[in-house]
């Protein structure tokens, strides 16, 4: 059974274990091997829980298979599965990632009564007139006058921002927060950006340059991937 | 083959019917063959504004239902032989005609006329859809008020989905002194928001109400500013480049003298 040893490779790392699983054998073989491997050195009750991250290599696991794997590991030892990483993803997952991380340019005037909705970030080249609405699951950038309603992070991304060349919105909404324009007549502001202030937990509007400091990973692919 | 222009606004009471009547009259003054169609079925007023109410025998619903031929329902204007009106029905409902039926009538009339001007009812429902169905162009009428600009914006959005040319804007009932003092939205602001071409501006004048009540479109009056504004719009529709009227009323002797010598600004 010498070959078996290579299907599961355990490595210690800072704060836990890494399990490298072979990606060529069948899933049932892998489970069998893993079960065997984990029964060998049973940990004593006093030891603390150990965090395990699993690396699957080029193997694709369905959600069910992931559950089986997680349960197996949890049962055997004082181990908790922290993460399961695979080098491969499904085509549909990849497409939805792409959709959620893309920036969609839209060239039009969003007029009263119209709603423009995109997945990912929205780059609107044109105005949003009073009564018009734009929505995006990610950030919103308006090259024009924002006078209507803008809703960024529609699926709960509270780090999303709304930037506009000219900002005079009726309402700004980010994730589940919203703010409205003051009741008195007010002038708009140029080159400003709305975001959720972590301390006050409400939407604030500041100069774009200032907001960039608070959201240094604004254009970062990973951030948008996680939040999409 | 003429062109069909729908006059619309979304909001009621901004001057669609007045604009239709005066534009028709102004085009007739230019010797164009014009037919006005009132599509506000159930609430017809174009015939009243034109002073032709007593001549109605058949109406547009009669045409749609085949009770008469289109030509039989047309009323010739008192003043111009080249100006005709197809009146709306007063006793029926907007749901009695379909956009297809209106389009068929408009297409038929386009054969004989230079311009078909369609007066659209307020709102964005059936009546609006009927009115827009046959049109090649659209004129959006608004007033310098927030609510009517908002509705104009909505209507422009809907018109953009139709297969017609980008709409043109007429700003009606302007009060120069309020605009100057900033109490009213100014022309630039409105054009900025709506971002469509401006076709003309018309000041608020008592003469318009007087004219409408007497069934004599104001465009017939030779000297009034409003009349000139409507005639300018007609000329712009015919492709002439006519500058916008100066809103400010010049006062005093100096201005009069200046005007006499033709050096008014």
Care to give the gist of this entry?
The complex is a heterodimer of chains A (228) and B (265). Chain A is an alpha/beta fold and 228 residues long.
Describe the fold and architecture:
With 228 residues, chain A is of the alpha/beta class. Chain A has two domains: 3-88; 94-227, Pectate Lyase C-like (3 Solenoid), CATH 2.160.20.70. In chain A, 23% of the residues lie in helices and 36% in strands. Chain A has five helices and 15 strands. In chain A, the strands form three sheets. In chain A, strands 5-7-9-11-14-15 form a six-stranded mixed β-sheet. In chain A, strands 6-8-10-12-13 form a five-stranded mixed β-sheet, with no helix packed on it. In chain A, strands 1-2-3-4 form a four-stranded mixed β-sheet. The longest helix of chain A has 14 residues, at 27-40. Chain A is elongated, with a radius of gyration of 24 Å. Chain B has one domain: 3-Layer(aba) Sandwich (Rossmann fold), CATH 3.40.50.300. Chain B has helices at 16-29, 46-50, 60-64, 70-73, 99-110, 126-133, 146-160, 176-180, 187-194, 206-213, 225-237, 252-260, and strands at residues 3-8, 34-38, 75-76, 83-86, 115-119, 137-142, 168-174, 197-203. Chain B is globular and about 65 Å long. The chains are: A alpha/beta (228), B alpha/beta (265).
Overall geometry of chain B: globular
| Relative helix content of chain A | 10-25%
Q: Mind describing the biggest β-sheet of chain B?
A: 8 strands, mixed
Distance between the termini of chain B: 40 Å
Describe the protein's topology.
The complex is a heterodimer of chains A (228) and B (265).
Chain A (H helix, E strand, L loop, with lengths): L7 E6 L2 E6 L5 H14 L9 E6 L7 H14 L2 E7 L5 H11 L1 E5 L7 E4 L2 E5 L7 E4 L3 E7 L2 E4 L9 E6 L3 E4 L2 E4 L8 E9 L4 E6 H7 L6 H7 L1
Parallel strand pairs in A: 2-3, 3-4, 5-7, 6-8, 7-9, 8-10, 9-11, 10-12
Antiparallel strand pairs in A: 1-2, 11-14, 12-13, 14-15
Chain B lengths: L2 E6 L7 H14 L4 E5 L7 H5 L9 H5 L5 H4 L1 E2 L6 E4 L12 H12 L4 E5 L6 H8 L3 E6 L3 H15 L7 E7 L1 H5 L6 H8 L2 E7 L2 H8 L11 H13 L14 H9 L5
Parallel strand pairs in B: 1-5, 1-6, 2-4, 2-5, 6-7, 7-8
Antiparallel strand pairs in B: 3-4
Helix pairs in contact in B: 1-11, 5-6
